[in-house]
Design a protein that fits this description.
about 425 residues; ten-stranded mixed beta sheet; about 15% strand
Length: about 425
């Protein structure tokens, strides 16, 4: 779930006009035909044209869908069938664990990719997350979603809470201080502190070294004390009336931004556009973003470019994927569509560091999120059904508690659901 979820149209586009004229299967055509499948907004449209201009022997066909789910459903279907995949396939982090269990169906990019696409190009945790358990590099990292916190300055002020850049740091220093401020806010205003318990829980959960699975792919939901602790903390906040009880990305959730239904929301880099679009021009300047995130930092979102073994031109496909994920190109993608780069040099680029956001009071959001990205020590290991457990098990269980189910019964629902999903 990222800014890409806002894209709704499903489009299939031929980037090169010559591809339409010749056709990828034209035996008389001596050019190398590559295809790339993405979803949402990677910011690659102009880059693919540039690549073809610089490589006249290459013709690229781009397939793009609006949302991640249908893209990955098709990817897994074609993997099972053994045919039909594109030369370069994008994989979102929520589906990466499932792809890594099928590492034998993908090329090892550390072996077929260009020499300059080494591990020092990326933040270490981003690079490492793209490797299978046996060390095979499945994907080149594209973007990331370093975490910050967005808040309504006017609503905090009305509750008598600090709302200036320095004052809010104490409120967001830890989860304990965050929920304490939320309890005060709810008591003083009768309104919700945050939008939905699921996003808060996910942010907390992703900060732990061990998540739903250990590195042996053993489900540890019932035995990992951090998961139960997060559950107890978030459900207590629900009981304290801190949650607006909204379903993420629902119509009601989107409307809540305009009406001031909540005062804070977890803000990975891609969320800024979501906040602005849903809040509308009337709320410009009321939202702010702070680099003070409870218990440090974290990441939510990001993707990889892979090269399936089905590709007839794996080295050429790897070269394209490496070029697209080079710092210079990722900065261009960031400027074009906003995906936040994961490359070390890109995080130092003036084009990123000097980027400001007028909607959020002119703060240098590029520099802010670049610093947040550096706070992530390593990516949490994701087991085979990690994404399903997050979205289809814990989210419904938390929502059930928000609708009146007891905390204990909700926890049993989550544990049983996770065990079923993991079978």
């Amino acid at each position: 779930m990222r800014q890409r979820l806002l894209a709704t149209a499903i489009a299939t586009a031929l980037v090169a006009a010559t591809a339409a004229a010749c056709g990828a299967g034209d035996a008389a055509d001596s050019k190398i035909h590559l295809s790339i499948a993405t979803f949402g907004e990677f910011g690659y449209e102009d880059l693919l044209k540039q690549y073809q201009a610089e490589h006249p022997d290459i013709v690229i066909t781009a397939h793009k869908v609006g949302q991640a789910a249908p893209h990955h459903q098709e990817l897994f279907t074609k993997l099972a069938a053994g045919s039909g995949l594109d030369d370069v396939e994008a994989v979102e982090e929520g589906y990466l664990a499932q792809v890594l269990t099928k590492a034998d169906k993908f090329n090892d990019l550390s072996k077929i990719g260009p020499a300059d696409a080494g591990p020092d190009r990326w933040l270490p945790w981003k690079y490492d997350a793209g490797k299978s358990k046996d060390g095979k590099l499945i994907g080149y990292g594209t973007d990331i979603g370093p975490l910050a916190m967005c808040y309504r300055t006017d609503l905090l002020q009305q509750a008598g809470l600090p709302a200036d850049a320095d004052g809010v740091k104490a409120l967001f220093a830890s989860w304990q201080s965050y929920f304490a401020a939320g309890k005060t806010y709810a008591q003083k205003t009768g309104k919700a502190w945050f939008d939905t318990s699921t996003q808060i829980f996910n942010a907390m959960h992703n900060q732990h070294d061990v998540g739903y699975y250990d590195t042996n792919n053993t489900l540890v939901v019932s035995s990992n004390p951090d998961i139960k602790s997060d559950w107890d903390t978030v459900t207590q906040a629900i009981a304290d009336k801190e949650s607006a009880k909204l379903v993420s990305f629902s119509n009601e959730w989107q409307a809540g931004f305009k009406t001031g239904a909540f005062a804070t929301t977890v803000c990975p880099a891609w969320m800024l556009g979501v906040v602005e679009q849903n809040s509308g021009p009337d709320n410009k300047g009321k939202w702010a973003v702070t680099d003070a995130f409870p218990n440090g930092g974290g990441n939510w979102g990001g993707s990889y470019l892979t090269v399936p073994l089905q590709s007839k031109h794996p080295k050429e496909a790897a070269a394209l994927a490496a070029w697209l994920t080079a710092p210079a190109q990722q900065i261009k993608a960031f400027v074009a569509k906003g995906p936040f780069p994961s490359q070390v040099q890109a995080l130092q680029a003036p084009e990123l560091l000097n980027t400001t956001n007028a909607y959020f009071g002119g703060v240098k959001t590029g520099a802010l999120y670049a610093e947040q990205a550096k706070k992530v020590a390593k990516a949490q290991y994701k087991g085979p059904q990690d994404g399903q457990i997050q979205d289809n098990v814990f989210a419904p269980a938390l929502q059930a508690v928000e609708q009146g189910k007891s905390t204990a019964d909700g926890w049993q629902q989550a544990v049983a659901g996770a065990e079923k999903a993991a079978k």
